Amino acid sequence: MVGKSGRYSPKVTATLYTIYADCVRLLKGLGREQLNSLVPGKQYFAFTNGKKISRAINQSLYESDPEQWRTFSKAMARNDISQYSSETISKIIYSLAISFCASVDLTKEGDQKTPGTFFEYFISYLFSWRVGVEPRNWMQILSIDGEDTRLPTDCIFNLGPKKRKFHVPVKTSTRERSIMLWAHQRLLDGVYGTGRFMGTPVLLAETKTDTARREVIEICLPDQWRIYQLYVAKLTRIYYLDPPSAYQRLSCEFPPLVVKPFSDFFVEWVDLSPS
Amino acid sequence: MVGKSGRYSPKVTATLYTIYADCVRLLKGLGREQLNSLVPGKQYFAFTNGKKISRAINQSLYESDPEQWRTFSKAMARNDISQYSSETISKIIYSLAISFCASVDLTKEGDQKTPGTFFEYFISYLFSWRVGVEPRNWMQILSIDGEDTRLPTDCIFNLGPKKRKFHVPVKTSTRERSIMLWAHQRLLDGVYGTGRFMGTPVLLAETKTDTARREVIEICLPDQWRIYQLYVAKLTRIYYLDPPSAYQRLSCEFPPLVVKPFSDFFVEWVDLSPS
Description:
Oligomer: homodimer
Strand content of chain A: 15-25%
């Protein structure tokens, strides 16, 4: 079902290369400033443009190299990325995504929408490639009275009858809206049966920069997430490009809530089952 | 439990009068412009300040009269508002709330937070007065392992053992985040049992102004709301100061979802039961 057009296609691969190369060119001409990271074990910096400052960028994940992306995307096209470690894939994907976001931060005013839209397309491109089907953004809801209803949804990847179905909200961060991930899963569980769809949201990061102090924190609410996983719905995985460590520890708690780098999905997706 | 201090108190009543009078004074000195309302049966206008334009104001609900508020708040203090019709109460409450929001729209830049915070305090002031208890913003969640968790919540009004408990999210609008109202209700249903808390959110309006075209629409998703009410949780009421007509029609559909003017709560609150 994934072919010449659609989320994953040679045309989109080429466009992503062009965008990435443009962003890297733009950012190389700008200032770069170390941020004071209050996140244990992680260093962050930001690009600056006059008084403007970009979002925080994880230093150990950032390697601005469009050629590396081109090589990786060729391996994707051959359907053989076995020579890439999860760590390398993380860096390649993160660097492309954050370059675009930082470029928008520095060239537009208060534009949160463009980075969010780009990130959604980029993740669904990667997801489409991996699972081999196009996403859809609505589901039919049966009505016993009158006409069926179309429910707009996050990306849904349905691999076919009797096969896996993924429910994939994609966001650059969740902040105080994180309960929406579980609420939409609950809705699908209610309509189609618990576990019919595996909830595997993909998120960019949870960093927040205090621009005056040049400080970075991660906004995490692990206790609330545990309660959502217990009482609202069960998510199979929560993937991040820059996983917050406070969330990664949740896999050792009850209820199990597995937060991992998105690059792990490329390997483990065939083994996932609703938890 | 409601006394000299807290959400409802003579001090807050006096402060609300002062704020309202200040806002009315400010707005009287500014421009006023008729908007092109695409909402059937409703007329809207906006205040203007140079190039700035306030949110849309429902013409038939707006009577900027701080003295009317003073008289009404004296009736509240005597605990006798029986001489006020629901329509009059709607106007008094709406006019005070929207005057503050419009004043912030015209004097600050992109500040959504201050109107939201003010609206939450104002509604919980009225709610506290009516039900006679203070709200709280967190609940204890029992843990079978280790320590209990404190879950931050929207306003919870607990009238005491074996008495009514209200779960009251307060927002100036819901837009694409409306599922959060149901998700938080689902959480309380999960932890404390279905129907233990009655969900009665209070919202200001769902208008959206196209500032270039000077057009007002109401953003309503009634089909989605029906699905949330069926599959996520049951809300007992949804109150608005300016109720969107597309939502008011939902009470005649299945599942019943009763959207009403908030002023009705002052009369019907003793008869409400979880639906």
